[in-house]
Amino acid sequence: MTSEVAEETAEQDVFGGVDSHADTVHVAVISDNGGHLADAEFTTTAAGYAAALAFLSAHGHVRAIGVEGTASYGAGFTRVARSHGHQVIEVNRPDRAERRRIGKSDPIDAYAAARAALSGRAQAAPKDETVAGIRALHNAARSAVKARTAALNQITHTLITAPESIRARYGQLKGTARTDALARLRPTGDAVHVAVLTALKSLARRVKELTAEHDALTKALDSEVTTHNPGLRAAHGVGPDTAAQLLVTAGGNPERMRTEASFAALCGAAPVPASSGRTNRHRLSRGGDRAANAALYRIALVRMSSDSHTRAYVARQTAAGRTKKEIIRLLKRAIAREMFRCLTTTVTTPGIADLRPLRQTKNITLTAVAQHFGVWPTTISRVERGLRRDDDLAHAYRDWLQAA
C-alpha cells in the first residue's frame, strides 16, 4: 500500500510557491487541482535551497514554481531552481483585498504564490543575471547623486543661519564656485565661526568627492550599457542612466516581454480604459515602473529640445490644440515602442569612426563644419565620438566631407 501511494505521489503534477525573506524561504506545494499538500521553511543557504527543491520533488513532478521576489530576497532560490531545470514564475505579492480577507503569514503567501503559478495569473519569467552588474552600478550612481544633493542642501541651510560675515561672503556664490571656495577654507575666528566654517568645509569636500565618484560610476555604467545593448545606447536622447534604467526594468532576457504594448504598460506609458455606461474614455496609467516612466519622460524632453523630427511633431500637435502634457504622453508611448524594439531586437548602429579621420585629413575644423550645417561645434564633436546619434546629420556630414 505504501509503495502504491509513493508511486502515485511521484506521478502526480504539483506546483510550488515560495515566500522569500532575508534568512528563510517558506515553500508550499499544491496539487494540479489546487489542493494544499504541504509547506515547510528552509534557510537561505545552498543546503537550504537543495532541501527545498528536494521537498518539492518529493510530492510529485514539479510543473512550475511561483516565487515572490525573484530579483530580491528570492534571487538565490530562483538561481538554484533554474539551474536544476525547474520553471520559475515571478509572482507579485497578493493584493490588499485578498490579504484583508484571508490574512497574511508565510504559509498563506507561499500557497498564494503556488496558486498564482497554477492558475496562470502569474506568467512572467524572472529576469536573468546579465544585467546584474548594470543594476549594481546604476544603484551606486543614484545613491551618490542623492548623497551629493543632501550635502548641497545642508550647505545651503547652514549658510542661511551662519554668522553674517560668513553668509555675506559665501551666500552669494552658486554652484561649483561656492563648493570650490568652501573646500579651500581655513577656519579662523571665534569658536562659532570655526565650527561653522569647519562644517561647511567638510560638506564641500564631500560634494566634490561624491561628484568624482558619480563621474567614475557613470563612465563605468556607460561602458557596460554600450557593450550590452549598443543600439539602445545610440538612440537619440538615451544616456547612460536612462539606458541602464530601461535595461534594469526589462531584464536581460527580452523574451519575457511578449509585445510592445505590454512593455508600455510595464513602464506606465499605456493609456488605461476608464469607460462606464455611456462614457468611453481612457486615463493616464498611474501604475507600472515609475523609474522607467521617468526615463521615458527624460528622453521625451531631450528630443523635444534637440531633435528636429520631434520638434516638428510637437508643432503639429500644438497647432491641433493639444496641451504640452498631452503631447508628452503621446511621445512617451511612441518612445516606449521604439525602446521595445531596441531591447528585443538587434539594432544596428551606423558607423561613425571614419568621420573624424576624414575631416582631419582634409584640414577642416569643427567650426567650419558646424557653420555649414547650422549647428554648434559640440554637436559635430559628439556625433564624431559616438556620444550622440543623428543618422541624418552623420550621412549628410559624410557626403559633404567626401565632396569637399
From TrEMBL:
<dbReference type="Pfam" id="PF02371">
    <property type="entry name" value="Transposase_20"/>
</dbReference>
<dbReference type="InterPro" id="IPR010982">
    <property type="entry name" value="Lambda_DNA-bd_dom_sf"/>
</dbReference>
<dbReference type="GO" id="GO:0006313">
    <property type="term" value="P:DNA transposition"/>
</dbReference>
<dbReference type="InterPro" id="IPR001387">
    <property type="entry name" value="Cro/C1-type_HTH"/>
</dbReference>
<feature type="domain" description="Transposase IS116/IS110/IS902 C-terminal">
    <location>
        <begin position="233"/>
        <end position="314"/>
    </location>
</feature>
<dbReference type="GO" id="GO:0003677">
    <property type="term" value="F:DNA binding"/>
</dbReference>
<protein>
    <submittedName>
        <fullName>IS110 family transposase</fullName>
    </submittedName>
</protein>
<dbReference type="InterPro" id="IPR003346">
    <property type="entry name" value="Transposase_20"/>
</dbReference>
<dbReference type="GO" id="GO:0004803">
    <property type="term" value="F:transposase activity"/>
</dbReference>
<feature type="domain" description="Transposase IS110-like N-terminal">
    <location>
        <begin position="17"/>
        <end position="159"/>
    </location>
</feature>
<dbReference type="InterPro" id="IPR002525">
    <property type="entry name" value="Transp_IS110-like_N"/>
</dbReference>
<dbReference type="Pfam" id="PF01548">
    <property type="entry name" value="DEDD_Tnp_IS110"/>
</dbReference>
<dbReference type="InterPro" id="IPR047650">
    <property type="entry name" value="Transpos_IS110"/>
</dbReference>
